[in-house]
Amino acid sequence: MPAQLPHPGIQFGIGVGNKQFKKAVDRNRIKRLCREAWRLQKSSLQEKLVASKKGVIVFFIYTGKEIPEYTDLFQHMGMAVSKLEKLYLE
Fold this sequence. Notes:
Layout: E1 9-16, H1 24-41, H2 43-51, E2 55-62, H3 70-89
Parallel strand pairs: 1-2
Helix pairs in contact: 1-3
């Protein structure tokens, strides 16, 4: 049975493995960059989900071997948001 959200919208999480990034400072930086990129791009998806009274839980796992540049991360997060819109709203 799928998880039931208390209200329509999005719940978001991010994970970074400590095998690749031994220092918590590096893991936290990657998580901060991901959350910021998500925050700036999620609005269209959130509006459509609330309008259709649907909810979704999104969890990203960062598997890269280097700390990403914010511009690259922003671009990839935008692609993920557009794929989620197509998947859940069409």
